[in-house]
Specification:
The protein is of the alpha+beta class and about 260 residues long. It has three domains: about 100 residues, 2-Layer Sandwich (Antithrombin, Chain I, domain 2); about 90 residues, Antithrombin, subunit I, domain 2 (Antithrombin, Chain I, domain 2), CATH 3.30.497; about 40 residues. The chain has a four-stranded mixed beta sheet with strand order 1-4-2-3. Strands 5-6 form a two-stranded antiparallel sheet. Strands 7-8 form a two-stranded antiparallel ribbon. Strand 7 and strand 8 form a beta hairpin. Helix 3 crosses helix 5. The protein is globular, with a radius of gyration of 20 Å. The chain starts with a strand and ends in a 10-residue tail after the last strand. One of its GO terms (molecular function) is serine-type endopeptidase inhibitor activity. One of its GO terms (cellular component) is extracellular space. Belongs to the serpin family. This is Serpin domain-containing protein. Keywords: Signal.
Length: about 260
């Protein structure tokens, strides 16, 4: 249980080694991905701070996945709506460059390491009252490997909910079986944005099971409780900012961490 892990989540943050990314593509595409990474980094930090502020509970969410599905909507936005997406997502490139960067990124994730089982799928479900242009559908397939489907929220909301849950189940190796609870979709529903991820890998540096021991865990209240801690002594990449500290734990093959 200490050697590896798998994730099958509706929203999951995936970090990919930038050295692997840049080495496999030309400089122009690498710059597009770098611009995308900077935008996503700013947006995800801002979103996390907004969600975590004022709560004493643990916060776990896939910030990259949120950025992905919002970017999918952004490519269909125009005029003031597009400007608002650009401001929120801190997009500095043009829409075509953003789309190409996502395409390259997802392509690299699919092929970066044969030792890892990984796939990420996206899908948009839109109320059939709002027809989606063929150009937009084609762009979603081309750049995000995503389908856009018009569904009947008005008279078949519950049936649509089951259809969506079945799709998520099939694309997460049966790990997520009831993403949308009963009653979550109504005749007023307009658009459902889905990003489903399946990932399975082994740590490059495994945590020795015998090193696990009970230690003090400090709560936000200042109190402490005893809990089991895994332990490993290795050199890892770290990042320190004003609001957080991060350590990078690579998986075997080191294309994912």
């Amino acid at each position: 249980m200490y050697a590896g892990n798998y994730f099958a989540l509706f929203l999951l943050l995936i970090l990919c080694s930038p050295e692997i990314t840049v080495s496999k593509i030309d400089s122009a595409k690498a710059q597009d991905i770098s611009n995308l990474a900077a935008s996503v980094d700013y947006f995800t930090n801002s979103l996390y701070q907004a969600v975590a502020t004022g709560t004493n509970e643990n916060v776990f969410m896939s910030l990259f996945s949120v950025a992905t599905v919002l970017s999918m909507v952004y490519l269909g936005a125009r005029q003031n709506s597009a400007k608002q997406f650009e401001n929120v997502l801190k997009i500095t490139s043009n829409p075509d460059s953003v789309a190409l960067a996502f395409k390259e990124y997802f392509s690299l994730l699919k092929t970066s390491d044969k030792l890892i089982t990984f796939y990420s799928v996206n899908r948009l479900y839109a109320n059939e009252k709002f027809p989606i242009s063929e150009d937009y559908k084609n762009n979603m397939v081309k750049y995000f490997f995503s389908d856009v489907e018009n569904v009947d929220f008005i008279t078949n909301a519950e049936k649509t909910r089951i259809t969506i849950n079945d799709w998520v189940k099939n694309n997460t190796n049966n790990k997520i079986t009831d993403l949308l609870p009963s009653g979550s979709l109504t005749p007023q529903s307009v658009l459902v944005l889905i990003n489903a991820v399946y990932f399975k890998g082994m740590w490059a540096e495994k945590f020795p099971e015998q090193a696990t021991s009970s230690r003090k865990f400090y709560l936000s209240s200042g109190k402490t409780i005893s809990h089991d801690f895994m332990y490993i002594s290795e050199d890892f990449n770290t990042k320190i900012s004003d609001n957080y500290k991060v350590v990078e734990l690579p998986y075997i093959g080191k294309a994912f961490s």
